[in-house]
Amino acid sequence: MLGESFYKKADEIIEMHMREERSLIPIIQDIQEEYRYLPPELLTYVAKEIGITEAKAYSVASFYENFSFEEKGKYIIKICDGTACHVRKSMPILDYLYKTLKLNAKKHTTEDALFTVETVSCLGACGLAPAITVNEKVYPKMSPEKMKKLLEEIKRGEPDAG
């Protein structure tokens, strides 16, 4: 169950937009940006506040791949599995992350909520394959060895790491 502060923040975000159906996407984008995921309770709340059904809000939020109902880590690592990246061995990077961070295809976020690992169909960086992003910053020509170094930099809090 969410605390009162979540609903207060949702109210602030709703007030920045019009209370109508066409504001749903911008509102839930802002909520997701705030929390790195879309808490289902807030989606229900937003639907009520802007006068649409809960079912309508869920159908919109679940249609778009960029909305997530699961909490995410501070650092969201996206591994590209598009053709160029796959052929250039992006999956060993994913395997390394799964092993190192104790994650798998069903468990995407570390226990300490520091990392979330996701695969994506394309990052639009085919010439840089295999590519990953960490919080939307692109890292080109990655390998498990480079990934190990990057994880170490992030954990040390180095400014350029994430």
TrEMBL record:
It is an enzyme of class 1 (oxidoreductase). Its cofactor is [2Fe-2S] cluster. It comes from the Bacteria. The gene is hndA_1. Signal peptide: none annotated. Binds 1 [2Fe-2S] cluster. Belongs to the complex I 24 kDa subunit family. Pfam families: 2Fe-2S_thioredx. The keyword RNA-binding does not apply. This is NADP-reducing hydrogenase subunit HndA. Its EC number is 1.12.1.3. Keywords: 2Fe-2S, Iron, Iron-sulfur, Metal-binding, Oxidoreductase. PANTHER family: BIFURCATING [FEFE] HYDROGENASE GAMMA SUBUNIT, NADH-QUINONE OXIDOREDUCTASE, E SUBUNIT.
